[in-house]
């Protein structure tokens, strides 16, 4: 029985800011937080090794882990706690404080997962006593992406508008986004020398997420998009450099592609155009392909390591008319009919 009334005080009551400008945005700021918290050189070295791990090889992923860990260290320092020996109760207080701060379930789940991963490594390296987040109750995250998607008809209208009213560069860029379902980061980073042929197929080697940005993936460019690309290349010329560049020769950037997608969608009469992004195209192509191809085929195209990530793109997977029960019923109905026929003939 609990006798101390203070023990029933809501754990979320925390004056510590847990949203807004991150306490750490780079390695240097993170190290400063660790020093302020009194962490040992072994803990700092272990953190550096953890950040160099395979799951954090991408610069953007590594930066996300640094930011999430920075929030935790900021919280502990404000409470005067030693990061190397935190009681699970304090981890639960932190989780409750994140919820009280109004953060989205996905954001809270990501922050907690990052901290738990860090502690697993520190315990393994002998730099922490325990993982205080072990077996913690964490936010349930929806397994369907909330990115605004497009129907095939809407994509068709955007492509038709681009072909008729936009520049050859814009039409070729949109075609490439559609036929490769690539991330916008790959399109803005690719050079003209990435184009080529492989066993008679027109291909392009695009930078993809992972391995510090040095990894590339070969994509097929089907004839439909190849025609658009060739028309643009005639206009662009054979000079080296970025495949899609500005009039001054500088590569286009991601904000430009964001604005471009929305402008074309608006001109093509696509509803809610203001909520679209280049990633909407990737989502839409994934959904479209999953209606026609096995999961593993679409997973390979998108470059997902985990098939569960690909499944999040399948907007139509909950539709009842796609249930395999129909195919199952038809198969057994056919088998039953064959046996009934044999019985009658006999």
UniProtKB/TrEMBL annotation:
The record's section on InterPro entries has:
CB (IPR044068), DNA_brk_join_enz (IPR011010), Integrase-like_cat_sf (IPR013762), Integrase_catalytic (IPR002104), Integrase_recombinase_N (IPR010998), Integrase_SAM-like_N (IPR004107), Tyrosine_recombinase_XerCD (IPR050090)
Keyword DNA-binding set for record: yes
Residue ranges annotated for the Tyr recombinase domain, each copy included:
145-326
GO molecular function annotation:
DNA binding
Q: Which residues form a coiled coil?
A: none
Question: SUPFAM superfamilies under this entry?
Answer: DNA breaking-rejoining enzymes
Q: Name one Pfam family in it.
A: Phage_int_SAM_1
Annotated ranges, domain Core-binding (CB): 37-123
GO terms under biological process: DNA integration; DNA recombination
- Give a yes or no for keyword Lipoprotein in this entry: no
- Keywords for this entry? DNA integration, DNA recombination, DNA-binding
Query: PANTHER family of this UniProt entry?
Result: PHAGE INTEGRASE-RELATED, TYROSINE RECOMBINASE XERC
Name-wise, this protein is Tyrosine-type recombinase/integrase
The organism named in the record is Nonomuraea rhodomycinica
